[in-house]
C-alpha cells in the first residue's frame, strides 16, 4: 500500500509504504449425503455451497455409487489451508421390492397348474418383473417357487428381499360322483365301480 495526498502546515508528513495481507476465507469440505434410496426422482448427493463449485455428478437419479468433484472459487481455501480439488463419494441404494404369490393352494385337475409372482414397492412407470422357477406342476404335492432375479428396463434400481421363496401346493381333488356298479367280485361282498374324473378312469372298490 502506498499512502499519499495528506498535507498539513503544522506537521512534516512522511509516507511509509505498507503491506496488506488479505487472508482467504476457510470453508469446510462438503460431505456426501447418506441413507439415500432410489425413489425415481433426482437425489442430491453433495449440496452446493459458498466458495466452491461442483461437478454434475453431485446429483443423480439411478441407484449406484457416485463421485462428485468440488473445486474452490477465488478467495477461498478449505479448512486447514488446503486448496486442492476434492473428491466426494456418495451413493443411492437400490429399492427393495416386495414379493407376492398369486395363490398358495390349487386343486388337482390332471393338467399342469401354475402360480405367478408379482412385485410391490415399484415406482409408478418403472418396468420391472420377477424371474422365478418352480411355479408349474401337475400332481398333488407341495412345491417351492424361488425368485432368482429381477428383469426389465429399471431392474438395476431394485433389489430382492432376503426371503425369495414361497411354498405352494396342489391339493387332492374331491370325488363326488354318481356311479353304477360295474361288476360283482365273486359274491364276496365287494363291488367294482369305475368313474371318470379329470379325464381319467378310476376304479373304486366298495364293500356291500
Main beta sheet: 4 strands, mixed
For this structure, the quaternary state is: single chain
**How would you write the strand order of the largest sheet?**
10-17-15-13
Distance between the termini: 126 Å
Strand pairing plus helix content: what structural class? mainly beta
- What amount of the residues lies in strands? 35-45%
Average pLDDT across residues?
A: 87
- In N-to-C order, the SSE pattern is EEEEEEEEEEEEEEEEEEEE
Low-confidence stretches: none
Helix content: under 10%
Radius of gyration: 39 Å
* Number of beta-strand segments: 20
Tally of separate helices: 0
Shape: rod-shaped
Summarize the structure in words.
There is one protein chain. With 208 residues, the protein is an all-beta fold. Helix content is 0%, strand content 43%. The chain has no helices and 20 strands. Strands 10-17-15-13 form a four-stranded mixed β-sheet, with no helix packed on it. A three-stranded antiparallel β-sheet has the order 3-5-7, with no helix packed on it. Strand 18 (181-184) and strand 19 form a beta hairpin. The N and C termini lie far apart (126 Å). The model has no long low-confidence stretch (mean pLDDT 87).
Any descriptors?
single chain, 208 residues, mainly beta, four-stranded mixed β-sheet, three-stranded antiparallel β-sheet, 20 strands, 0% helix
Amino acid at each position: 500500500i502506498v499512502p499519499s495526498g495528506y498535507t498539513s502546515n503544522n506537521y512534516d508528513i512522511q509516507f511509509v509504504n505498507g503491506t496488506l495481507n488479505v487472508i482467504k476465507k476457510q470453508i469446510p469440505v462438503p460431505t456426501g449425503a447418506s441413507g439415500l434410496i432410489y425413489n425415481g426422482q433426482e437425489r442430491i448427493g453433495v449440496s452446493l455451497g459458498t466458495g466452491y463449485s461442483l461437478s454434475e455428478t453431485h446429483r443423480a437419479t439411478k441407484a449406484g455409487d457416485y463421485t462428485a468433484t468440488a473445486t474452490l472459487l477465488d478467495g477461498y481455501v478449505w479448512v486447514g489451508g488446503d486448496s486442492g480439488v476434492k473428491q466426494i463419494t456418495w451413493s443411492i441404494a437400490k429399492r427393495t421390492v416386495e414379493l407376492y404369490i398369486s395363490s398358495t393352494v390349487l386343486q388337482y385337475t390332471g393338467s399342469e397348474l401354475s402360480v405367478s409372482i408379482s412385485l410391490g414397492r415399484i415406482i409408478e412407470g418403472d418396468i420391472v418383473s420377477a424371474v422365478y422357477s418352480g411355479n408349474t406342476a401337475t400332481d398333488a404335492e407341495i412345491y417351492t417357487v424361488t425368485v432368482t432375479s429381477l428383469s426389465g428396463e429399471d431392474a438395476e434400481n431394485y433389489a430382492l428381499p432376503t426371503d425369495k421363496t414361497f411354498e405352494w401346493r396342489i391339493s387332492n381333488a374331491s370325488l363326488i360322483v354318481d356311479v353304477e356298479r360295474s361288476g360283482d367280485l365273486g359274491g364276496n361282498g365287494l363291488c367294482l365301480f369305475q368313474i371318470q374324473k379329470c379325464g381319467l378312469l378310476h376304479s373304486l372298490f366298495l364293500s356291500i
